[in-house]
Design brief:
By secondary structure, the chain is of the alpha/beta class. Helices cover 35% and strands 24% of the residues. It is globular, with a radius of gyration of 17 Å.
Length: 255
């Protein structure tokens, strides 16, 4: 059992816009709740999540003990910025954007936390596993954006402080790179290595900001593919069985 930490060195906020995809969002926010609790028990950080939505995801967020900022789905950039500003107003020392369709394993958060805190650096990761909308295929890949972040970037407070909108508020996609351009100037991005499964996103037949086909068309070179029972099954290497079982229920007989 982890020993509960009493001397905190930081407050990490996960910032998560959400829109529809209620079953998927529910299991992802449940995993985020368990992750926040693990961080509080195992690292010298407190961890919280703010969900930005105006639909039934508001109730789902409250059910899992997360905070909420109310905003519609017209602009993803606005929703991310509102989440960042909420985090800063509530004392965040670090901010990490993550979608309502994604899981993050404790191990990679521990690596990011251990690497954070050095002046002039921002830590992140470039590895990702993505599950196809029918649940029958998963691509594991490494993503490199030119002059910007990859998958998960842990911004220190000072990189966002003083920005009226840390992310351009008119964007419908491309918020990772745009936030880096506004907040990453003068910083060196330092990436940590991990199993792609430790950051997994799940595509569904519902609306997607980045669809699975376009993602793998751009990043499939060198990717490892698991199909059939392995697509979901290998997630049990990184996440609790009850969460994986719920994921199987969502995808149903397709997986």
């Amino acid at each position: 059992m982890p020993t509960k930490q009493t001397s905190r060195v930081g407050l990490l906020y996960f910032v998560t816009p959400a829109f529809q995809r209620y079953e998927l969002t529910d299991v992802c926010l449940r995993q985020r709740r368990e992750l926040c609790d693990w961080i509080a028990d195992s690292l010298k950080f407190e961890a919280r999540c703010v969900v930005i939505a105006d639909d039934d995801n508001v109730g789902i967020a409250h059910d899992h003990g997360h905070e909420v900022a109310i905003a519609g789905n017209e602009s993803l950039g606005l929703r991310f910025s509102l989440g960042y500003l909420h985090a800063l107003e509530h004392g965040a020392t670090h901010v990490l954007p993550i979608g309502s369709d994604s899981w993050m394993a404790p191990g990679i958060v521990a690596e990011l936390a251990a690497a954070s805190g050095r002046p002039g650096e921002i830590v992140g990761t470039r590895r990702l596993a993505s599950l196809r909308p029918d649940g029958l295929e998963r691509y594991d890949m490494t993503i490199f954006y030119p002059h910007g972040p990859g998958v998960a970037t842990m911004y220190p407070r000072e990189s966002m402080s003083g920005k009226r909108w840390p992310c351009p508020i008119d964007l419908k996609r491309g918020c990772d790179g745009a936030t880096w351009r506004k907040c990453g100037g003068g910083y060196r991005l330092v990436t940590v290595e991990h199993d792609p499964l430790e950051y997994t996103d799940f595509k569904s037949p519902d609306v997607q900001t980045t669809d699975y086909g376009r993602l793998i068309a751009r990043w499939s070179e060198g990717a490892r593919v698991d199909r059939g029972s392995l697509a979901i099954g290998r997630l049990e290497d990184a996440y609790p069985g009850h969460l994986v079982a719920r994921l199987r229920e969502i995808y149903g007989s397709r997986a």
